[in-house]
Amino acid sequence: MATTRARLDPALFDLPVEKMRAGWYSDAYFNHARDTLLRDGRHPRVLMQVFQKKHAWLGGMDEAIAILKLCSHDYDGLVVHALHDGDRVEPYEPVLHIEGDYTAFAHLETAYLGTLARRTLITTNVVHVLQAANGKPVIFMPARHDHHRVQAGDGYAAYVAGQVVGAEVAVTSDEQSSWWGGRGIGTVPHALIGAYGGDTVLAAQKFAAWAPPDMNVTVLVDFDNDSVRTALEVADALGDRLWGVRLDTSESLVDRSLLDELGDFKPTGVNERLVWKVRQALDAAGHGRIRIVVSGGFTVDKITEFESDGVPVDAYGIGSSLIRGSNDFTGDIVMTDGKPSAKVGRHYRENPRLERVS
């Protein structure tokens, strides 16, 4: 299984170092605990053990390490062992050990646990989608469903998932690809079609005239809720300049091409019958090389069903389902000054897979 073994430069994450070092992003009780120890003149040497409770693929570790390196009060006095982004982890398996004066890093627990939780959720969700898609490209499209400040880290977490599976993951904004040097991609959107008075063909032609030669021009064809007709019109108009069409029919609508076929399948949204009709129409018109991208409400289960049924999809666009769910991390002090000190139910766990972080 591939992982990203080389760790990212801490400077890449553009952390708010001074505010983080001051405890601004910490749950108040961690700041209070640190202040109590400092007032008492106590500097316990602890071993902090970090884990989660699911089968998952790790994300956010390089970012968590950057938080420790840049925002602790004495990183040189800490001994850190960690797994790598992209590693497969088991329930309760330690992914991070931090050993040293607790007052040097007590204020960072909220930040590094939250980072690991968010990024591991994304990496794991994208791995599951890529596996379901059987190697077909996946477009990571949740940027519009969340705050813009999460884009860079989430995009990198999706990229890590692609490295794990060995499949292509595209992202839709430059910020999402900024940590690994990619670029955002996109189709001719509904907004551009609307800006040309609802004329999909005209919008596609203008877009193709603007687009760089190396851009794969892909056009949304559901604006008039007549995907077969629109796909054919766009393919005829753009010829070799068209790379693909994207189906994005609302879950509350039935595409016009299906109105005389109701009765034995769920007709709303982007369904299997609609994809087949578009594929067959394109092939019959001599446009067999045009790819079909689907989006709108796709989940692991829906992709699995499409792939099991052999639906002729070339790429999947997935949005909000990739940022839903939870994958929480916990940190426990399990050793203090060389002696066991874990709370009841927890204990120090050896993990030979952990690597020393310089």
In brief:
The chain is an alpha/beta fold.
Strand content: 15-25%
The name of the CATH architecture of the largest domain is: Alpha-Beta Barrel
| CATH level-1 class of the largest domain | Alpha Beta
Q: What is the N-to-C succession of helices and strands? A: HHEEHEEEHEHEHHEHEHEHEEEE
List the helices and strands and how they pair.
Layout: H1 17-21, H2 28-40, E1 45-52, E2 56-57, H3 61-71, E3 79-82, E4 88-89, E5 96-101, H4 109-132, E6 138-140, H5 151-165, E7 169-171, H6 190-195, H7 200-210, E8 217-220, H8 227-238, E9 242-247, H9 272-284, E10 291-295, H10 300-308, E11 315-318, E12 329-336, E13 339-340, E14 355-357
Parallel strand pairs: 6-7, 6-11, 8-9, 9-10, 10-11
Antiparallel strand pairs: 1-5, 1-12, 2-4, 3-5, 3-14, 12-13
Question: What does this entry look like structurally?
Answer:
With 358 residues, this protein is an alpha/beta fold. It folds into two domains: 10-121 and 325-357, nicotinate phosphoribosyltransferase (Alpha-Beta Barrel); 132-321, TIM Barrel (Alpha-Beta Barrel), CATH 3.20.20.70. The chain is built from ten helices and 14 strands. The chain has a six-stranded antiparallel β-sheet. Helix 5 (151-165) links the parallel strand 6 and strand 7 (169-171). The two termini are 24 Å apart.
Output the keywords.
358 residues, alpha/beta, nicotinate phosphoribosyltransferase, 6-stranded parallel beta sheet, 14 strands, 33% helix, elongated
